[in-house]
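Reagents: none. Just compute today. FAD-binding domain-containing protein.
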Amino acid sequence: MNSTTPSTNGSESQLNGHHSSSPSRPLKILIAGAGIGGLFAAISRTSAGHSMATVEITLQSRIKGVDCDRTGLILENGEYVQGDLVISADGVHSVIRNSVLGYKTSPKPFGTSAFRFLIPISEVKADPKTAHFVEKPGELAMVYGEEGRLVLYPCRNNTELNFVAMIPDYESGAENNTGWNQAGSKAVLLRLFDGFSDDIKALLEKAPEDTVKLWKLLDHDALPTWSRGSVVLIGDAAHQFLPHQGQGGAQAMEDGAALGALLPLGTLSSEIPSRLKLYFRAGIEHVKREIMDPLQFTDYNFRHDAFEHAAETLRNEVNTARA
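Predicted 3D structure written out:
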């Protein structure tokens, strides 16, 4: 196969095949998945000087499976690509997770569905019933009912108001489709939130009929490991988060940052498996905390520096080995 990707020094390195363990050359890193976790991992590792290939974009083929023993990806078009490290950023329905674990597992419904949609802030401001929701730029609001919950916050430089309206699965009419892009019914949305205040109902009336989406939330049991050999899971492939405080996307980005700290330029390919075990340890240390009240929880999440935490984990490991 002749597919290539440029290395950081301007030369071309073959996408197929391992490199040597020379400390002077960048690692060849293959990324499965092009969501926020995969893209952040690519940015993090490219800035460190490693050579990256987001496989499905580079080779225009979906991934069929992974070879954990040889650090390779099997593509649906029949091609096989090899590298020093495979980063599985292919989401909650990961095709790589089972190979890393050595057994079959899959996400399960959490019991809640979420309607998702955007409303132009200009429309909200123009209506006296709803203008108070956008008086302060950048403000998030949460409204609770007996069974439903509504979260709204501005995005796109305060030009759109993003809505997440959560209700039990049995009320939503959600089918077994667990994709995030399933069409939702505005009529069902309005019916389920009919008991809310008039200003909330006026807001929901503005939801565009043809863009309301219904997302069946999924959960997953905690995994005993996030890596096998030089294949590693990140983001929802490793730890499925429910959409609270944006932690699904945030944790995926933190994973990419952590790998950046643990795999600096000069890392040998032979060192990768042990570094990935440190990545798992650093991630578990972060989330294994005593239950906090909501304000403490928010402060803890927003202040956490995943890069520095992982770097400190690596420093401690090196110092222990030298002692």
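Residues 315 and 321 are 10 Å apart (CA to CA).
Action item: order primers for follow-up constructs.
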